[in-house]
Amino acid sequence: xxxxxxxxxxxxxxxxxxxxxxxxxxxxxxxxxxxxxxxxxxxxxxxxxxxxxxxxxxxxxxxxxxxxxxxxxxxxxxxxxxxxxxxxxxxxxxxxxxxxxxxxxxxxxxxxxxxxxxxxxxxxxxxxxxxxxxxxxxxxxxxxxxxxxxxxxxxxxxxxxxxxxxxxxxxxxxxxxxxxxxxxxxxxxxxxxxxxxxxxxxxxxxxxxxxxxxxxxxxxxxxxxxxxxxxxxxxxxxxxxxxxxxxxxxxxxxxxxxxxxxxxxxxxxxxxxxxxxxxxxxxxxxxxxxxxxxxxxxxxxxxxxxxxxxxxxxxxxxxxxxxxxxxxxxxxxxxxxxxxxxxxxxxxxxxxxxxxxxxxxxxxxxxxxxxxxxxxxxxxxxxxxxxxxxxxxxxxxxxxxxxxxxxxxxxxxxxxxxxxxxxxxxxxxxxxxxxxxxxxxxxxxxxxxxxxxxxxxxxxxxxxxxxxxxxxxxxxxxxxxxxxxxxxxxxxxxxxxxxxxxxxxxxxxxxxxxxxxxxxxxxxxxxxxxxxxxxxxxxxxxxxxxxxxxxxxxxxxxxxxxxxxxxxxxxxxxxxxxxxxxxxxxxxxxxxxxxxxxxxxxxxxxxxxxxxxxxxxxxxxxxxxxxxxxxxxxxxxxxxxxxxxxxxxxxxxxxxxxxxxxxxxxxxxxxxxxxxxxxxxxxxxxxxxxxxxxxxxxx
Length: 699
Hints:
Layout: E1 4-8, E2 19-23, H1 40-47, E3 51-55, E4 69-70, H2 81-92, H3 104-113, H4 128-131, H5 137-150, H6 161-183, E5 193-196, H7 203-212, E6 215-218, H8 220-237, H9 263-274, E7 278-281, H10 284-299, H11 307-318, E8 322-323, E9 326-328, H12 337-347, E10 352-355, E11 358-361, H13 362-368, H14 380-385, H15 389-419, H16 429-433, H17 438-451, H18 455-459, H19 471-474, H20 476-497, E12 506-508, E13 513-515, H21 523-551, H22 553-556, H23 573-589, H24 611-643, H25 649-661, H26 672-683, H27 686-692
Parallel strand pairs: 1-3, 5-6
Antiparallel strand pairs: 1-2, 3-4, 7-9, 8-10, 10-11, 12-13
């Protein structure tokens, strides 16, 4: 009889579980951890045994009694007393009740709430007999190949809880893949985890973590790099040489040497003294992005922090312990010192945090999330607060929202053009081929696809005395396209920044050196975000011009202010005032923050970026522009209602979405709530999703 691997999902209370037997014939089918170089001897011993049984654990937070286990049975083999006792305890159900698995549905619900329950990977009870025999030989071969990619055995790392939590998350993810193979569960039931390596992070990843609650873990290779850098810092801290950030003061106090006995107090005092932010707290999606980006830069292994420090940061993110970070206090050089200090303060059990929807003391929030504060090691305080992660987090979320506005502006602008019975000639492709700016071509293509076959266009294509439409209609490709091109540049800058190391000094383990530089300076991000603010402000400018055009009865060919009974009703007259007011506010905010520099730290930091100011201004302008586009969408839908004609399927779908949320204006009523409703529809991408159901290639 050939040897086999038996894969079993064990559960609280016994041996029942889903089981898959596959031939032990291909080396690739072994668990990944058996192929690690430092486990070669163990692998050879294991190859001589008849079978390997991988047992599903019940907790992915590092609880020792419920970790993945390998029970090896071989006649005459001496039992490992500690390991086998734990395995026996598991079979008899003698584990601590606090470590028992929770139902998968409860874990998913907690993950959706951001409570961090998603860190636990637990299995529902499943009948072994119900799953056995479902697959033939071909299925078993497929299972062998898949299990080679997904399964891991119990790792024999030191019993460090923070480290083991991240490793257990990897096994939890692997089990979901294997469960689908074993039991035929649908792909949507697989739980994904984002693994930080210090590189390769995308803005889409940031959005997924910040707004969709995707779980995050530290890649094992990154963990080794982080540990190596921490060892080098510890070695330097115990030496005689003065190294900035390790055993000296900071800023203008960098010339002051700190005694070895005071190094931990130095880091603690650094965090406390820099937590000086004021104002309203940053939104929670921004805080989640901040924690993610800070962990990403630490994962590069250039900062000198210990792995357990990174794991605590990720555990806070996964379990919903979100620091209260005040909006104001950063000048954007030496990074976002004050905001990041408020995040680091929670890690040492001080300050405040949001958890389970409540604002609590950091100590309470950590305790309720089953986390413990850490004592900062040399350089860790500086590594946690020195960087551009706050301005970059705000910028990433704002960029995503701005790109949504670009597509929304195309759709809403075309609705207005249809209500005004504009021509599509200025959007002809050959015109834009003669001036091939990328964004311009994309917008022109969008506009053409949206009005292709429009009955409204056909109704006035012949015999219309108008020769040209106003710029706000005719030049949409040029204006909207320029904004798109600017945002494309901003995207490139931010994608570099989220994969960069931006603290100081940096640790280079290859050379055994710690080097001071200026990667913390936020100028690249600040300039890019100032540009993004101007780009979004222009979307608002041209939208307001179209609102003015369609509400002006002298130029629209429709009833004045889109009122069914002008005079008795004012229609959308004052809605245009609101748009004009928001445009003016945008223009004030469009002045670049990056040109404003105020020296700090007794002249040592004599040029600063004001990058967080640039990011916050951008977020404000995006909100204003979204409201302006909401007003235009209401005016365009009202204009089409008054026109009494149908447009293309795509634009009728957009009109349907608008009318599902806001009815036609037959009599004057308060419009403030309706503007807010449409603004939310735009922000949630409901409008453009409906249009994309009709125009697949809409960019």
